[in-house]
Amino acid sequence: MFDNIRSDIQAVFDNDPAARSKFEVIFTYSGLHAIWMHRIAHALYKRGWFTVARIISQFSRFMTGIEIHPGAKIGRRLFIDHGMGVVIGETCEIGDDVVIYQGVTLGGTGKEKGKRHPTIGNNVVIASGAKVLGSFRVGDNSNIGANSVVLREVPPNSTVVGIPGRIVKRNGERVGDRLDHTRLPDPVIDLCRNMQNEIDSLKAELQRLREERAKEKV
Ligand SMILES: CC(C)(COP(=O)(O)OP(=O)(O)OC[C@H]1O[C@@H](n2cnc3c(N)ncnc32)[C@H](O)[C@@H]1OP(=O)(O)O)[C@@H](O)C(=O)NCCC(=O)NCCS
């Protein structure tokens, strides 16, 4: 238990350059308080003490602004920065060394039963305001951009941004725009452009012939 506490505190120093002292971290980081209260709530939940677990989770939400369902499984060294507005659902599973910013929802779509919340791999960053919705996996070492809405499986080592979330980087390489539906080629526009070019060159040719004839008359 003390090992866990020590590594939770270390995770704050590893991820937040603003962290100054252990004293400050222990007393002012609401992300830490939420994780510690969740550990108690989760232990009670596993023993079938569902209501007491929910009461602890609600108290934690009241104190920190972070709502973690007692059923959620959380790995080691999770760092929740700022935290306000974070919601983590009952069947969510979070790996080790994950960073979550304020306003993140790890939730369900409302269409699934049973396992209905995401599984987050190790070393994943979920930026502020992102929503990850559904019972799919976000692969290890992936980044979810601020305010993205992710509705599908994310392979490892990917960066996902936008609504709906799309992969823009994988294994450090930019992913091409082949499926960028806002920039698909338009054959009608291309045809019009070609016709306009033809008309312009015919007009220029006609003008040249007119000038030649005018010179001959003189
Ligand atoms: C996604 C993020 C984690 C960076 O991941 P990364 O793998 O380093 O990705 P990059 O910065 O190389 O960005 C890749 C592309 O996605 C775009 N992008 C990044 N974040 C984006 C976002 N939230 N929304 C839309 N596009 C975004 C970048 O502009 C870039 O596009 P380009 O290749 O056309 O230039 C980061 O941009 C992010 O969202 N950080 C926010 C952290 C946060 O919540 N801070 C709050 C602290 S209080």
From TrEMBL:
The keyword Transferase applies. Pathway: Amino-acid biosynthesis; L-cysteine biosynthesis; L-cysteine from L-serine: step 1/2. It catalyses: L-serine + acetyl-CoA = O-acetyl-L-serine + CoA. Gene3D superfamilies: Hexapeptide repeat proteins, serine acetyltransferase, domain 1. It comes from the Bacteria. Its EC number is 2.3.1.30. Keywords: Acyltransferase, Amino-acid biosynthesis, Cysteine biosynthesis, Transferase. PANTHER family: SERINE ACETYLTRANSFERASE. Belongs to the transferase hexapeptide repeat family. This is Serine acetyltransferase. It comes from Paenibacillus cisolokensis.
